[in-house]
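During the reporting period, we have paired protein sequences with backbone structure tokens. One record among many follows, to show the layout:
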Amino acid sequence: MTMATVATAWTVWAALASAVLASCLFNALVRLVWRPRAIAGRLARQGVRGPGYRFFVGNLGDIRRLRAAGAGLVLDVSSHDFIPISQPQFRQWIPLYGRVFLYWFGSTPNMCVADLGMAKQLLSDRTGLFPKNWMNPIVRLVGKGLVMTDGDVWHRHKKVLHPAFNLDKLKVRTYIILGTPFN
């Protein structure tokens, strides 16, 4: 093997490695910078605001800080308002940004919909425009039930479960449950 072919091989490998590195850097730039800005800008034009995106971490720093501040709170015995302890960011962000706002888990956008009418419309959507997105892999370990399925699988599960929740059968069950002695 001559020195020229070795140099050419190294040049080809270096060019290939730099092309792969440039591609990875470009994809990271798109995913971590351009895409969040584009999503936030597009939603802002539609009137959906929210806390600003921070590079790579999103709003996780704010969420962590607010949860640490709410960790020392103690609930009153008669109070069922656990939001200041479990999800304090929503208590702070809803008055600032409205009942529908955008926040970020890293570079992943999330939308909080606290408006009852809009939540009802989203949950009763039959067009398929709002698919269920279960990103958490631990959720998949639980299994797919009626809540976590879409499309044909959801229709099949609903068809199987629907007779069990018939109004007459539920009335019979309440009499059975109320008739059992509680120890």
Remarks:
- Residues 115 and 121 are 10 Å apart (CA to CA).
- DSSP finds eight helices and two strands in the chain.
- The two ends are 89 Å apart (CA to CA).
